[in-house]
Protein backbone atom coordinates (compact mmCIF):
# COMPACT_ATOMS: atom_id res chain seq x y z
CA UNK A 1 0.00 0.00 0.00
CA UNK A 2 1.24 3.49 -0.86
CA UNK A 3 1.40 6.15 1.86
CA UNK A 4 -0.87 8.42 -0.16
CA UNK A 5 -3.58 5.75 0.18
CA UNK A 6 -3.58 5.90 3.99
CA UNK A 7 -5.40 9.22 4.35
CA UNK A 8 -2.48 11.20 5.80
CA UNK A 9 -2.31 15.01 5.72
CA UNK A 10 -0.71 16.66 2.69
CA UNK A 11 2.16 18.14 4.73
CA UNK A 12 3.05 14.69 6.07
CA UNK A 13 2.98 13.22 2.57
CA UNK A 14 5.25 16.04 1.45
CA UNK A 15 7.78 15.11 4.11
CA UNK A 16 7.52 11.40 3.28
CA UNK A 17 8.05 12.14 -0.38
CA UNK A 18 11.12 14.28 0.37
CA UNK A 19 12.61 11.37 2.31
CA UNK A 20 11.85 8.85 -0.43
CA UNK A 21 9.05 7.00 1.40
CA UNK A 22 6.52 5.49 -0.99
CA UNK A 23 5.28 2.10 0.20
CA UNK A 24 4.17 1.27 3.74
CA UNK A 25 5.62 -1.75 5.53
CA UNK A 26 3.19 -4.42 6.83
CA UNK A 27 3.16 -3.00 10.38
CA UNK A 28 2.46 0.49 9.01
CA UNK A 29 -0.22 -0.77 6.65
CA UNK A 30 -2.06 -2.49 9.51
CA UNK A 31 -1.50 -0.03 12.37
CA UNK A 32 -1.86 3.40 10.75
CA UNK A 33 -5.54 3.10 9.67
CA UNK A 34 -6.54 1.81 13.13
CA UNK A 35 -4.62 4.56 14.91
CA UNK A 36 -6.09 7.21 12.61
CA UNK A 37 -9.55 5.91 13.62
CA UNK A 38 -8.74 6.34 17.32
CA UNK A 39 -8.31 2.65 18.18
CA UNK A 40 -5.79 1.34 20.70
CA UNK A 41 -3.14 -0.95 19.26
CA UNK A 42 -1.14 -3.83 20.77
CA UNK A 43 1.62 -4.68 18.31
CA UNK A 44 4.33 -7.31 18.41
CA UNK A 45 6.95 -6.21 15.93
CA UNK A 46 10.71 -6.47 16.05
CA UNK A 47 13.18 -3.76 15.22
CA UNK A 48 13.46 -3.04 11.52
CA UNK A 49 9.79 -3.52 10.63
CA UNK A 50 8.93 0.20 10.52
CA UNK A 51 7.02 0.39 13.81
CA UNK A 52 8.32 3.84 14.76
CA UNK A 53 6.73 5.42 11.71
CA UNK A 54 3.62 3.32 12.38
CA UNK A 55 2.88 5.23 15.59
CA UNK A 56 4.48 8.60 14.78
CA UNK A 57 2.60 9.29 11.54
CA UNK A 58 -0.95 8.97 13.02
CA UNK A 59 0.05 11.16 15.97
CA UNK A 60 1.47 13.86 13.69
CA UNK A 61 -1.57 13.62 11.44
CA UNK A 62 -3.95 14.32 14.33
CA UNK A 63 -1.79 17.23 15.55
CA UNK A 64 -1.90 18.75 12.07
CA UNK A 65 -5.66 18.39 11.70
CA UNK A 66 -6.63 19.04 15.33
CA UNK A 67 -3.88 20.93 17.23
CA UNK A 68 -4.18 21.58 20.96
CA UNK A 69 -2.56 23.91 23.49
CA UNK A 70 -0.51 21.67 25.79
CA UNK A 71 1.24 18.31 25.79
CA UNK A 72 -0.52 16.01 23.32
CA UNK A 73 1.64 12.88 23.32
CA UNK A 74 3.94 11.02 25.72
CA UNK A 75 6.24 8.39 24.20
CA UNK A 76 8.16 6.25 26.70
CA UNK A 77 11.41 4.52 25.64
CA UNK A 78 13.63 2.14 27.67
CA UNK A 79 16.96 3.84 26.87
CA UNK A 80 18.29 7.31 26.19
CA UNK A 81 19.63 6.16 22.81
CA UNK A 82 16.15 5.13 21.70
CA UNK A 83 14.64 8.36 23.02
CA UNK A 84 17.14 10.38 20.97
CA UNK A 85 16.57 8.28 17.87
CA UNK A 86 12.77 8.46 18.00
CA UNK A 87 12.92 12.23 18.55
CA UNK A 88 15.18 12.57 15.51
CA UNK A 89 12.77 10.52 13.41
CA UNK A 90 9.90 12.64 14.64
CA UNK A 91 11.74 15.80 13.57
CA UNK A 92 12.26 14.30 10.13
CA UNK A 93 8.61 13.32 9.63
CA UNK A 94 7.34 16.67 10.94
CA UNK A 95 9.78 18.84 8.95
CA UNK A 96 7.00 20.52 6.94
CA UNK A 97 4.67 20.93 9.95
CA UNK A 98 4.56 23.12 13.06
CA UNK A 99 4.69 20.19 15.51
CA UNK A 100 7.18 20.60 18.38
CA UNK A 101 8.92 17.86 20.37
CA UNK A 102 11.48 17.33 23.12
CA UNK A 103 13.63 14.35 24.12
CA UNK A 104 13.93 13.85 27.88
CA UNK A 105 16.59 11.52 29.25
CA UNK A 106 19.22 11.43 31.98
CA UNK A 107 22.98 11.39 31.97
CA UNK A 108 23.44 15.04 31.02
CA UNK A 109 24.32 18.24 32.83
CA UNK A 110 22.03 20.57 34.75
CA UNK A 111 21.54 22.83 31.74
CA UNK A 112 19.74 20.05 29.86
CA UNK A 113 17.35 19.61 32.79
CA UNK A 114 16.59 23.34 32.61
CA UNK A 115 15.86 23.16 28.88
CA UNK A 116 13.59 20.15 29.39
CA UNK A 117 11.74 21.99 32.15
CA UNK A 118 11.07 24.99 29.90
CA UNK A 119 9.68 22.79 27.11
CA UNK A 120 7.41 20.93 29.53
CA UNK A 121 6.13 24.11 31.14
CA UNK A 122 5.41 25.61 27.72
CA UNK A 123 3.45 22.53 26.66
CA UNK A 124 5.48 20.98 23.85
CA UNK A 125 3.38 18.82 21.50
CA UNK A 126 5.28 15.53 21.80
CA UNK A 127 7.43 14.30 24.69
CA UNK A 128 9.83 11.41 24.02
CA UNK A 129 11.27 10.27 27.35
CA UNK A 130 12.84 7.59 29.45
CA UNK A 131 10.56 6.77 32.42
CA UNK A 132 12.95 7.70 35.24
CA UNK A 133 13.89 11.13 33.92
CA UNK A 134 10.30 12.02 33.02
CA UNK A 135 9.10 10.95 36.47
CA UNK A 136 11.70 13.26 38.02
CA UNK A 137 10.11 16.19 36.18
CA UNK A 138 6.59 15.10 37.19
CA UNK A 139 7.54 14.97 40.85
CA UNK A 140 8.59 18.64 40.72
CA UNK A 141 4.99 19.61 40.04
CA UNK A 142 5.23 21.80 36.93
CA UNK A 143 4.19 19.25 34.28
CA UNK A 144 0.53 19.30 33.22
CA UNK A 145 -0.59 16.07 31.55
CA UNK A 146 -4.33 16.85 31.49
CA UNK A 147 -4.25 17.50 27.73
CA UNK A 148 -2.52 14.24 26.73
CA UNK A 149 -4.39 12.36 24.01
CA UNK A 150 -1.77 9.75 23.06
CA UNK A 151 0.40 7.44 25.16
CA UNK A 152 3.01 5.25 23.46
CA UNK A 153 4.93 2.48 25.23
CA UNK A 154 7.72 1.49 22.86
CA UNK A 155 9.87 -1.62 23.43
CA UNK A 156 7.54 -2.47 26.31
CA UNK A 157 9.16 -5.85 26.98
CA UNK A 158 12.56 -4.23 27.45
CA UNK A 159 11.11 -1.59 29.81
CA UNK A 160 9.60 -4.33 31.97
CA UNK A 161 12.90 -6.24 31.94
CA UNK A 162 14.70 -3.11 33.12
CA UNK A 163 12.35 -2.69 36.08
CA UNK A 164 10.37 0.34 34.90
CA UNK A 165 6.91 -1.04 35.73
CA UNK A 166 6.33 1.12 38.79
CA UNK A 167 7.63 4.28 37.10
CA UNK A 168 5.45 3.62 34.06
CA UNK A 169 2.33 3.10 36.14
CA UNK A 170 3.01 6.28 38.13
CA UNK A 171 3.21 8.22 34.85
CA UNK A 172 0.16 6.48 33.35
CA UNK A 173 -1.96 7.31 36.39
CA UNK A 174 -1.33 11.02 35.80
CA UNK A 175 -2.57 10.83 32.18
CA UNK A 176 -6.31 11.04 31.37
CA UNK A 177 -7.98 7.66 30.91
CA UNK A 178 -9.78 9.01 27.83
CA UNK A 179 -6.66 8.63 25.71
CA UNK A 180 -5.41 6.52 22.84
CA UNK A 181 -2.72 4.02 23.85
CA UNK A 182 -0.20 2.27 21.62
CA UNK A 183 1.90 -0.58 23.03
CA UNK A 184 4.71 -1.92 20.86
CA UNK A 185 6.83 -4.86 21.94
CA UNK A 186 9.37 -7.06 20.18
CA UNK A 187 8.12 -10.08 22.16
CA UNK A 188 4.75 -10.92 23.68
CA UNK A 189 5.32 -12.99 26.86
CA UNK A 190 2.38 -13.46 29.26
CA UNK A 191 3.50 -10.60 31.52
CA UNK A 192 3.36 -8.13 28.62
CA UNK A 193 -0.11 -9.28 27.64
CA UNK A 194 -1.27 -8.97 31.25
CA UNK A 195 0.34 -5.53 31.49
CA UNK A 196 -1.39 -4.39 28.30
CA UNK A 197 -4.81 -5.39 29.64
CA UNK A 198 -4.53 -2.75 32.36
CA UNK A 199 -3.68 -0.01 29.85
CA UNK A 200 -5.48 -0.65 26.55
CA UNK A 201 -9.16 -0.68 25.62
CA UNK A 202 -10.27 -3.28 23.04
CA UNK A 203 -7.00 -2.99 21.13
CA UNK A 204 -6.29 -4.15 17.63
CA UNK A 205 -3.64 -6.86 17.96
CA UNK A 206 -0.92 -7.01 15.31
CA UNK A 207 1.95 -9.48 15.02
CA UNK A 208 4.70 -8.91 12.46
CA UNK A 209 7.82 -10.99 11.62
CA UNK A 210 8.42 -12.44 15.05
CA UNK A 211 11.75 -14.05 15.91
CA UNK A 212 13.16 -14.15 12.40
CA UNK A 213 16.53 -12.70 11.41
CA UNK A 214 16.76 -10.63 8.25
CA UNK A 215 16.97 -12.75 5.11
CA UNK A 216 20.29 -11.16 4.12
CA UNK A 217 22.17 -12.30 7.24
CA UNK A 218 24.66 -15.15 6.91
CA UNK A 219 25.01 -16.86 10.28
CA UNK A 220 27.74 -19.04 11.75
CA UNK A 221 28.86 -20.36 15.13
CA UNK A 222 32.34 -21.00 16.55
CA UNK A 223 32.54 -23.45 19.45
CA UNK A 224 35.42 -22.17 21.57
CA UNK A 225 36.23 -21.95 25.26
CA UNK A 226 35.98 -18.62 27.08
CA UNK A 227 39.70 -18.14 27.65
CA UNK A 228 40.32 -18.29 23.88
CA UNK A 229 37.60 -15.86 22.81
CA UNK A 230 39.69 -12.66 22.89
CA UNK A 231 42.37 -14.27 20.73
CA UNK A 232 39.78 -15.67 18.32
CA UNK A 233 38.15 -12.26 17.85
CA UNK A 234 41.59 -10.76 17.26
CA UNK A 235 42.38 -13.48 14.72
CA UNK A 236 39.11 -12.91 12.85
CA UNK A 237 39.49 -9.13 12.76
CA UNK A 238 43.05 -9.26 11.44
CA UNK A 239 41.82 -10.69 8.18
CA UNK A 240 38.99 -8.21 7.70
CA UNK A 241 39.29 -4.99 5.74
CA UNK A 242 40.44 -2.29 8.20
CA UNK A 243 37.49 -0.08 7.24
CA UNK A 244 34.80 -2.75 7.45
CA UNK A 245 32.33 -1.81 10.17
CA UNK A 246 32.00 -4.52 12.82
CA UNK A 247 29.78 -4.52 15.91
CA UNK A 248 30.70 -6.89 18.74
CA UNK A 249 28.22 -7.68 21.52
CA UNK A 250 29.22 -8.90 24.97
CA UNK A 251 26.87 -9.69 27.83
CA UNK A 252 28.58 -7.71 30.60
CA UNK A 253 30.27 -4.34 30.97
CA UNK A 254 33.39 -6.07 32.24
CA UNK A 255 33.64 -8.27 29.14
CA UNK A 256 33.10 -5.23 26.90
CA UNK A 257 35.88 -3.27 28.58
CA UNK A 258 38.32 -6.17 28.63
CA UNK A 259 37.78 -7.06 24.97
CA UNK A 260 38.07 -3.46 23.83
CA UNK A 261 41.29 -3.00 25.82
CA UNK A 262 42.67 -6.20 24.29
CA UNK A 263 41.85 -5.02 20.76
CA UNK A 264 43.26 -1.53 21.30
CA UNK A 265 46.48 -3.01 22.71
CA UNK A 266 46.76 -5.10 19.54
CA UNK A 267 46.49 -2.02 17.34
CA UNK A 268 42.83 -2.13 16.29
CA UNK A 269 40.74 1.03 15.92
CA UNK A 270 38.02 0.07 18.36
CA UNK A 271 35.81 1.67 21.00
CA UNK A 272 33.36 0.46 23.62
CA UNK A 273 29.95 1.64 24.76
CA UNK A 274 28.16 0.71 27.99
CA UNK A 275 26.20 2.26 30.83
CA UNK A 276 29.28 3.26 32.86
CA UNK A 277 30.07 5.99 30.32
CA UNK A 278 28.69 9.50 30.61
CA UNK A 279 26.00 10.34 28.07
CA UNK A 280 28.30 12.71 26.15
CA UNK A 281 30.91 9.94 25.90
CA UNK A 282 28.33 7.51 24.60
CA UNK A 283 27.07 9.96 22.01
CA UNK A 284 30.59 10.77 20.84
CA UNK A 285 31.50 7.08 20.64
CA UNK A 286 28.37 6.28 18.67
CA UNK A 287 29.13 9.14 16.28
CA UNK A 288 32.66 7.89 15.59
CA UNK A 289 31.23 4.46 14.77
CA UNK A 290 28.47 5.88 12.57
CA UNK A 291 30.93 7.91 10.51
CA UNK A 292 33.35 4.93 10.40
CA UNK A 293 36.28 6.80 11.91
CA UNK A 294 36.29 3.94 14.45
CA UNK A 295 35.19 0.83 12.52
CA UNK A 296 34.97 -1.61 15.46
CA UNK A 297 32.54 -1.09 18.33
CA UNK A 298 32.26 -3.38 21.37
CA UNK A 299 28.92 -2.92 23.12
CA UNK A 300 26.53 -4.28 25.69
CA UNK A 301 22.94 -5.00 24.69
CA UNK A 302 22.16 -1.28 24.97
CA UNK A 303 22.66 -1.21 21.18
CA UNK A 304 20.82 -4.43 20.36
CA UNK A 305 17.35 -2.93 20.09
CA UNK A 306 16.12 -0.04 18.04
CA UNK A 307 19.46 1.58 17.28
CA UNK A 308 19.72 2.04 13.53
CA UNK A 309 23.32 2.37 12.33
CA UNK A 310 23.70 1.99 8.62
CA UNK A 311 26.54 0.06 7.04
CA UNK A 312 27.29 -2.51 9.75
CA UNK A 313 28.61 -5.47 7.79
CA UNK A 314 29.47 -7.94 10.56
CA UNK A 315 28.03 -8.65 14.00
CA UNK A 316 29.99 -10.85 16.40
CA UNK A 317 28.36 -12.24 19.52
CA UNK A 318 31.23 -12.59 21.99
CA UNK A 319 28.87 -14.64 24.11
CA UNK A 320 25.39 -16.11 23.80
CA UNK A 321 22.62 -13.80 25.02
CA UNK A 322 20.39 -15.19 27.74
CA UNK A 323 17.17 -14.41 25.88
CA UNK A 324 16.83 -16.01 22.42
CA UNK A 325 14.94 -12.92 21.22
CA UNK A 326 17.97 -10.79 22.09
CA UNK A 327 20.00 -12.85 19.62
CA UNK A 328 17.62 -11.84 16.84
CA UNK A 329 17.91 -8.19 17.85
CA UNK A 330 21.71 -8.34 18.07
CA UNK A 331 22.25 -9.80 14.63
CA UNK A 332 19.53 -7.53 13.27
CA UNK A 333 21.97 -4.61 13.48
CA UNK A 334 23.41 -5.84 10.17
CA UNK A 335 21.64 -6.46 6.84
CA UNK A 336 19.46 -3.38 7.32
CA UNK A 337 17.20 -2.14 4.54
CA UNK A 338 17.66 -5.17 2.27
CA UNK A 339 21.45 -5.13 2.61
CA UNK A 340 23.46 -8.24 3.39
CA UNK A 341 25.62 -8.95 6.41
CA UNK A 342 27.28 -11.61 8.51
CA UNK A 343 26.63 -12.62 12.12
CA UNK A 344 28.81 -14.99 14.09
CA UNK A 345 28.55 -16.29 17.64
CA UNK A 346 31.29 -17.58 19.95
CA UNK A 347 29.86 -20.39 22.06
CA UNK A 348 31.61 -21.95 25.05
CA UNK A 349 30.57 -25.09 26.89
CA UNK A 350 28.41 -22.99 29.25
CA UNK A 351 26.62 -21.35 26.32
CA UNK A 352 25.70 -24.43 24.30
CA UNK A 353 22.26 -24.95 25.86
CA UNK A 354 21.37 -21.29 25.40
CA UNK A 355 22.41 -21.43 21.75
CA UNK A 356 20.27 -24.53 21.21
CA UNK A 357 17.28 -22.53 22.47
CA UNK A 358 18.09 -19.83 19.92
CA UNK A 359 18.20 -22.38 17.12
CA UNK A 360 14.89 -23.83 18.31
CA UNK A 361 13.30 -20.37 18.31
CA UNK A 362 14.48 -19.67 14.75
CA UNK A 363 13.79 -23.28 13.68
CA UNK A 364 17.17 -23.63 11.96
CA UNK A 365 20.59 -25.11 12.60
CA UNK A 366 23.26 -22.43 12.41
CA UNK A 367 26.30 -23.68 10.45
CA UNK A 368 29.35 -24.57 12.56
CA UNK A 369 32.55 -22.79 11.54
CA UNK A 370 35.84 -24.73 11.80
CA UNK A 371 38.27 -23.13 14.20
CA UNK A 372 41.61 -21.75 12.98
CA UNK A 373 44.72 -23.72 13.88
CA UNK A 374 45.77 -23.32 17.49
CA UNK A 375 42.22 -23.02 18.86
CA UNK A 376 40.51 -25.78 20.76
CA UNK A 377 36.81 -26.52 20.38
CA UNK A 378 34.54 -26.10 23.36
CA UNK A 379 34.63 -29.10 25.66
CA UNK A 380 31.94 -31.65 24.90
CA UNK A 381 31.36 -30.51 21.30
CA UNK A 382 30.96 -33.64 19.20
CA UNK A 383 31.55 -34.28 15.54
CA UNK A 384 27.91 -35.11 14.98
CA UNK A 385 26.83 -31.53 15.74
CA UNK A 386 29.48 -30.21 13.35
CA UNK A 387 28.29 -32.49 10.58
CA UNK A 388 24.67 -31.50 11.19
CA UNK A 389 25.54 -27.82 11.41
CA UNK A 390 25.19 -27.19 7.68
CA UNK A 391 21.68 -28.59 7.46
CA UNK A 392 18.94 -26.17 8.55
CA UNK A 393 15.73 -27.73 9.74
CA UNK A 394 13.89 -25.67 7.21
CA UNK A 395 15.72 -27.17 4.23
CA UNK A 396 18.68 -26.11 2.14
CA UNK A 397 20.80 -23.03 2.72
CA UNK A 398 20.43 -20.02 0.48
CA UNK A 399 23.98 -19.67 -0.67
CA UNK A 400 22.89 -19.28 -4.28
CA UNK A 401 20.84 -16.21 -3.38
CA UNK A 402 23.86 -14.19 -2.30
CA UNK A 403 25.00 -11.30 -4.50
CA UNK A 404 27.73 -12.18 -6.95
CA UNK A 405 31.15 -12.43 -5.42
CA UNK A 406 29.88 -12.37 -1.81
CA UNK A 407 31.30 -14.79 0.72
CA UNK A 408 29.19 -17.44 2.35
CA UNK A 409 29.59 -20.56 4.39
CA UNK A 410 28.94 -23.35 1.93
CA UNK A 411 27.43 -24.55 -1.30
CA UNK A 412 28.46 -22.64 -4.40
CA UNK A 413 29.62 -19.16 -5.18
CA UNK A 414 27.73 -17.17 -7.82
CA UNK A 415 30.53 -14.86 -8.85
CA UNK A 416 33.87 -15.35 -10.50
CA UNK A 417 36.34 -15.93 -7.71
CA UNK A 418 40.00 -15.10 -8.19
CA UNK A 419 42.43 -17.99 -8.19
CA UNK A 420 43.52 -18.80 -4.66
CA UNK A 421 40.50 -17.15 -2.95
CA UNK A 422 39.28 -19.50 -0.30
CA UNK A 423 35.80 -20.81 0.20
CA UNK A 424 34.57 -23.02 3.01
CA UNK A 425 33.30 -25.97 1.06
CA UNK A 426 31.74 -27.06 -2.17
CA UNK A 427 32.76 -25.55 -5.49
CA UNK A 428 33.10 -22.26 -7.28
CA UNK A 429 31.22 -21.27 -10.38
CA UNK A 430 33.91 -18.84 -11.40
CA UNK A 431 36.37 -19.14 -14.21
CA UNK A 432 39.30 -20.35 -12.07
CA UNK A 433 38.43 -23.42 -9.99
CA UNK A 434 41.48 -24.32 -7.97
CA UNK A 435 41.87 -27.51 -5.99
CA UNK A 436 43.04 -27.25 -2.38
CA UNK A 437 46.34 -28.88 -3.28
CA UNK A 438 47.06 -25.96 -5.60
CA UNK A 439 46.65 -23.38 -2.85
CA UNK A 440 49.67 -23.75 -0.60
CA UNK A 441 49.36 -20.18 0.76
CA UNK A 442 46.00 -20.96 2.29
CA UNK A 443 47.43 -24.01 4.00
CA UNK A 444 49.86 -21.95 6.02
CA UNK A 445 49.56 -19.59 8.94
CA UNK A 446 50.88 -16.06 8.70
CA UNK A 447 52.66 -14.35 11.59
CA UNK A 448 50.58 -13.84 14.75
CA UNK A 449 48.21 -16.60 13.74
CA UNK A 450 46.89 -14.69 10.73
CA UNK A 451 46.00 -16.84 7.75
CA UNK A 452 46.93 -15.43 4.35
CA UNK A 453 44.20 -14.57 1.90
CA UNK A 454 40.43 -14.45 2.37
CA UNK A 455 38.36 -13.58 5.43
CA UNK A 456 38.34 -15.86 8.47
CA UNK A 457 34.84 -14.83 9.32
CA UNK A 458 33.56 -16.29 6.10
CA UNK A 459 35.97 -19.18 5.88
CA UNK A 460 36.46 -20.03 9.53
CA UNK A 461 40.21 -20.72 9.34
CA UNK A 462 43.19 -21.85 7.28
CA UNK A 463 42.71 -24.32 4.46
CA UNK A 464 44.94 -26.91 6.09
CA UNK A 465 42.55 -27.24 9.03
CA UNK A 466 39.61 -27.91 6.77
CA UNK A 467 41.47 -30.38 4.61
CA UNK A 468 42.43 -32.42 7.68
CA UNK A 469 38.73 -32.68 8.51
CA UNK A 470 38.06 -34.34 5.17
CA UNK A 471 34.50 -34.38 3.87
CA UNK A 472 33.13 -32.95 7.09
CA UNK A 473 33.28 -29.39 5.79
CA UNK A 474 32.01 -29.77 2.26
CA UNK A 475 28.44 -28.65 2.95
CA UNK A 476 28.14 -25.51 5.02
CA UNK A 477 25.15 -23.75 3.48
CA UNK A 478 23.08 -21.90 6.10
CA UNK A 479 19.52 -20.76 6.57
CA UNK A 480 18.37 -17.22 6.87
CA UNK A 481 15.22 -15.57 8.11
CA UNK A 482 13.15 -12.47 7.50
CA UNK A 483 13.87 -8.91 8.34
CA UNK A 484 12.99 -5.28 8.07
CA UNK A 485 14.15 -1.77 7.39
CA UNK A 486 16.03 1.24 8.70
CA UNK A 487 15.25 4.72 10.02
CA UNK A 488 15.54 8.38 9.06
CA UNK A 489 18.05 10.70 10.63
CA UNK A 490 17.37 14.14 12.02
CA UNK A 491 16.73 17.45 10.25
CA UNK A 492 16.94 19.03 7.81
CA UNK A 493 16.42 16.11 5.44
CA UNK A 494 16.72 12.60 6.93
CA UNK A 495 17.92 9.82 4.66
CA UNK A 496 15.25 7.57 3.16
CA UNK A 497 14.81 4.77 5.67
CA UNK A 498 11.79 3.22 7.32
CA UNK A 499 12.31 2.53 11.04
Quick rundown:
By secondary structure, the chain is of the alpha/beta class. The chain has helices spanning 10-18, 26-36, 51-65, 80-93, 110-122, 131-139, 156-161, 165-172, 190-197, 229-238, 253-265, 279-290, 324-331, 352-362, 383-388, 456-459, 463-468, and strands spanning 41-45, 73-76, 101-104, 126-129, 150-153, 180-185, 204-208, 217-223, 246-249, 270-273, 296-299, 314-317, 341-347, 412-413, 427-428. The radius of gyration is 24 Å and the shape is globular.
Structure characteristics:
alpha/beta; 15 strands; 499 residues; Rossmann fold; 7-stranded parallel sheet
Please tell me about this protein's structure.
- The chain is an alpha/beta fold.
- The chain has two domains: 3-208, Rossmann fold; 217-407 and 461-473, Rossmann fold (3-Layer(aba) Sandwich), CATH 3.40.50.300.
- Helix 6 crosses helix 8 (165-172).
- The strands form three sheets. A seven-stranded parallel β-sheet has the order 3-4-2-5-6-1-7, sandwiched between helices. It has a six-stranded parallel β-sheet with strand order 8-13-12-9-11-10, with helices on both faces.
- Strand 10 (270-273), helix 12 and strand 11 form a beta-alpha-beta unit.
- The chain is globular.
- 33% of the residues lie in helices and 13% in strands.
Strand order within the widest sheet?
3-4-2-5-6-1-7
Architecture (CATH level 2) name of the largest domain: 3-Layer(aba) Sandwich
| Number of E strands | 15
User: N-to-C terminal Cα separation, in Å?
Assistant: 17 Å
The helical percent reads 25-40%
Count of distinct structural domains: 2
Strand content of the residues, in percent?
Answer: 5-15%
Number of helices: 17
Here the CATH topology of the largest domain equals Rossmann fold
Rg over C-alpha atoms, rounded to the nearest angstrom: 24 Å
Look at the structure and give the CATH class of the largest domain. Answer: Alpha Beta
Which residues form runs of ≥5 with pLDDT under 50? 382-499
Which secondary-structure class do the elements indicate? alpha/beta
CATH superfamily of the largest domain: P-loop containing nucleotide triphosphate hydrolases
Sheet bearing the most strands, described? 7 strands, parallel
Gross morphology is globular
What is the average per-residue confidence, as pLDDT, rounded to a whole number?
77
Amino acid sequence: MKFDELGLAATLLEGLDAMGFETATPIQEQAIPALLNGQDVLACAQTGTGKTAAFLLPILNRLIEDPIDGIDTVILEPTRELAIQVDQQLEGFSYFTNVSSVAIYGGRDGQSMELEMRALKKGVDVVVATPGRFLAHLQMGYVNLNTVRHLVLDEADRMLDMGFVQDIMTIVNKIPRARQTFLFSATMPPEIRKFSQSLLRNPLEISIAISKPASGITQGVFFVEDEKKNKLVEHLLRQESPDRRILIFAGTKRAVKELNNHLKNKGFRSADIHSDLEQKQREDTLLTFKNASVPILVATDVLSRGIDIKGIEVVINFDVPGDPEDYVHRIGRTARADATGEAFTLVSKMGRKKFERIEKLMDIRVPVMPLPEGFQAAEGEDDGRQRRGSRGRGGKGRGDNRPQGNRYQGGRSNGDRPAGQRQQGGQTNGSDPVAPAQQPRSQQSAPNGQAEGGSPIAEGGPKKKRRNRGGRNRNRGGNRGDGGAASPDSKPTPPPTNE
